[in-house]
Amino acid sequence: MKKVHNGFTIIEVTLFLAITGLLFLGVTFGVQSSVFRQRFNDSVQNFSEFLRNIYAETMNVQNADSGRSKQAIFGKLVTFGEEYNFTGDKVNGEEAFVYDVVGDATSDVGGGGGGILKALSDANADVIIKEEGKVARLAGIVESYKPKWSARIQPACNAADCLKPIKATLLIVRHPRSGTVYTYVMANSAIPVNATMKTPATVNSILKSYLTESNFKPDPIDFCVNPMGEVKYDSRADVRIKGNSRNSSGIEIINDVGDNKCK
């Protein structure tokens, strides 16, 4: 009588395990790649939304904190790459800080010509309020922002320093008289608001000395969003604010490889 053998040989089991392992690795890699892409897209969209909200808050101002009828909020100052946070602790420069720009709300402010920067200077615009006999304090609403999923915001260039956090300052403000929104950029430098406020009793102003055309320019600026903190260039996304944008429509996510300043 012929004997019937049940089961698998060692070779068959080995082949099965090898094929199963390869399939598992392929599925796992595909899932990880999909998760990575989704997180990266979330980071880019979240950063774009952060910038859009600044325009929305500038155009729909809520004078919530100054408590004085002679004061008005003209817009926002946004710093990238500050060395200190709100509490005076040293940080790595990967946070952005958003400050209200507050100044005099008198009717004659900005009436002598000279553009928005002069109008703000005439209005004694600043990110602090210094009341007589009191130490300076940050005005209005103050916020901080960090990119999602450990992404980093970097400058648009291709050198070793371009993998460091971007240093830049945005001034998004309404004209005191006309209400027109203007966007100004101070490239390669972050106004050290938090470092200055470490000793508020000695602070008289922060912003006013910077309100010149040699500092702030109506230029475009490209922010490179680097996914998951990867230290390489080829995966960075370009989020651009067009020159002298009037509203959030000036924010673009650059998908054209030839126009992407972050590759």
Characterize the structure shown:
- The chain is an alpha+beta fold and 263 residues long.
- The strands form three sheets. The protein has a five-stranded antiparallel beta sheet. Strands 6-9-10-11 form a four-stranded antiparallel beta sheet, with helices on one face.
- The longest helix is centred in the N-terminal third of the chain and has 50 residues, at 10-59.
- It starts with 9 loop residues before the first helix and ends in a 9-residue tail after the last strand.
- The chain has one domain (10-259).
- Helices cover 24% and strands 22% of the residues.
The helix/strand class is alpha+beta
Tally the helices: 3
Number of strands: 11
Major sheet description: 5 strands, antiparallel
> Please, what is the average pLDDT?
85
- Record the strand order, biggest sheet: 5-2-1-7-8
Please indicate the count of domains: 1
Query: What's the Cα radius of gyration?
Result: 26 Å
Uncertain stretches of 5 or more adjacent residues: none
Shape: elongated
Strand content: 15-25%
Order of helices and strands: HEEHEEEEEEHEEE
